[in-house]
Amino acid sequence: MKNRYLYISEVTDATHNLALEEYALTHFSEGTIILLWQNAKTIVVGRHQNTMEEINQKYVDDHKITVVRRMTGGGAVYHDLGNLNYSIITDNKGDETSQMKHLAAPLIDTLRQMGIDAEFSGRNDVVVDGKKVSGTAQRLYKNRILHHGCILFDADLSAVSHCLNVDQAKFKSKAVKSVKSRVANIVDFLDCKVSMEEFKGRLSDNLIASKNYQYLVLNETDYANISEIKISRYQNWNWNYGEAMATSIYNKVRYVGGKLEANVDVKEGKIARCKLLGDFMARCSVAEVERRLQGCRYVYEDIVEALNGCHLSDYFGQITKEEVVACICCRE
Ligand SMILES: Nc1ncnc2c1ncn2[C@@H]1O[C@H](COP(=O)(O)OC(=O)CCCC[C@@H]2CCSS2)[C@@H](O)[C@H]1O
């Protein structure tokens, strides 16, 4: 039997952990590597999603939640220290769908051993009582496969719904959309108290499934490479937000002076075109405001900056800068 390696990350920064996972997939060409990792408050969006369409940016900013794109497909999920992630990197044996089920089996086994009747749903989720407790995704790389999953053990479910609550009607794009599910924490199905550490131990026993494993030891070069991937990709706005499909956004707000409507086309995360309409009696042409926004990143702070020094009342009458920016950014 080929070697099995286990690595339990001590770091709770999602950008580090995703870089570690990518490094393990692309640099270790043999054996099975199992990673267990936890992130402090983070939203992880899928490879082919438009980040801005998936997250409630105001809630994310107010609650200091990290936002990062991963390299696998699927939808956006919320992580905190009550959520546990696992990654399995192994040889690709061909049929992706059956591998998906096979690779998620240790989680189902762990839950069943704890008296929870869990099952793998048709759409790559693990569910208990019809509620999703885990989402999974995978990606192929050369002759290897990465299968990973996030598990709601004792996470803040109100944060899950708040930060992923976005009015989809405001966006038109071909990006992959998340599939909203009813979610639950594993602790809610347990009769006795189990700590996260105990659960981690049980899951890793099932993932390793043999005594024949070693702890993966990383050296200085590995850490330097991981850090390089972390900085160039997972901490890079272009990857996390900019790498997006073109999207057209429509929003409107009412303010004391009337109604403002924003039609914004965003390409690669930047405003390609912005049209502002309303029933305001403009003293100056809004074209000047629209011009200022052209090329600006579709980011609240950048839009605020682009409008610095612009007397918005000259264009819209009685309106605050916050109201204009909130309209453009769909910030409630
Ligand atoms: N942490 C967590 N676990 C399970 N399900 C979640 C979680 N957070 C949100 N959700 C629910 O899943 C949907 C999105 O489901 P959807 O099916 O669209 O996407 C997924 O499941 C992707 C799973 C990715 C797993 C990776 C493993 C390591 S890094 S992230 C969301 O709208 C919520 O209803």
From TrEMBL:
CDD domains: LplA (cd16443). The keyword Secreted does not apply. It is an enzyme of class 6 (ligase). The keyword Glycosyltransferase does not apply. Keywords: ATP-binding, Ligase, Nucleotide-binding. It comes from the Bacteria. Pathway: Protein modification; protein lipoylation via exogenous pathway; protein N(6)-(lipoyl)lysine from lipoate: step 2/2; Protein modification; protein lipoylation via exogenous pathway; protein N(6)-(lipoyl)lysine from lipoate: step 1/2. It catalyses: L-lysyl-[lipoyl-carrier protein] + (R)-lipoate + ATP = N(6)-[(R)-lipoyl]-L-lysyl-[lipoyl-carrier protein] + AMP + diphosphate + H(+). Its EC number is 6.3.1.20. Pfam families: Lip_prot_lig_C (PF10437), LplA-B_cat (PF21948). This is lipoate--protein ligase. Residues 28-215 form the BPL/LPL catalytic domain. Coiled coil: none annotated. GO terms for molecular function: lipoate-protein ligase activity. InterPro entries: aa-tRNA-synth_II/BPL/LPL, BPL_LPL_catalytic, Lipoate_protein_ligase_C, LipoylTrfase_LipoateP_Ligase. PROSITE patterns: BPL_LPL_CATALYTIC. Signal peptide: none annotated.
